[in-house]
Amino acid sequence: MCPPRGGNIFPRMAFYLKILGALVLVLAIIAGGIWYWVTSSGQKALLDVARQAQLCKTDDCSEGLDEASSFLAQEFGLTPGLVKWCIGVDSIAGDTATRPNHNGNWFIETLYQPCGEPIVE
What we know:
Elements (H helix, E strand, L loop, with lengths): L10 H42 L9 H15 L3 H18 L7 H8 L9
Helix pairs in contact: 1-2, 1-3, 2-3, 3-4
């Protein structure tokens, strides 16, 4: 028995591929949201560091952000982009530490993975 012309030989497979595509799309949206949340928290924290160190010369403080980021990158052996990520995770970890619910610790530890081991003096 031959399938009809132009018909789909594997109708169930097409259905499962659509589900898989939707799942990949949802995961990509969640990952993008987490990335945005962490890096925007890092941007705010880095701006606070630049202002406290009086590195800002303009209103947007772009030169102060660059200088603070490059200093911290050199100090901790990270790339400037990763500095923003790690400071963002620090900021989020500080916010969640004040909450009584500590179920998010595995999530924070996962976010810290690209930052490497903390330097303890």
